[in-house]
Amino acid sequence: MIAGSATLATSDGVVHTWHYRVPITPAPVRGHPVLIVLHGDGGSGNGFASAFHPFTDPDPDSTIVVTPSGG
Description:
By secondary structure, the protein is mainly β. The chain is built from one helix and four strands, in the order E-E-E-H-E. The chain has a four-stranded mixed β-sheet with strand order 1-2-4-3.
C-alpha cells in the first residue's frame, strides 16, 4: 500500500492536512472505492487512516482511504 499525507491551502491562508492510503493492487475495471473518514474530533486524521488500513490491502477490490485532519 502507498500511504502519505498532503496539504491544501485555502484562499484565506489556512493550511489543511489530509492523509491517504492507496492499495498497491491493480484497480479493477470499475476502479477502487474511496472511503473518506470525517472523524470530527479536531485532531489528526492520521490515526484514523491507520485504523482503516485492513480494508485497503491486499484485497484487489480494496478501498482507498482519505482522512482529513481537523482544524
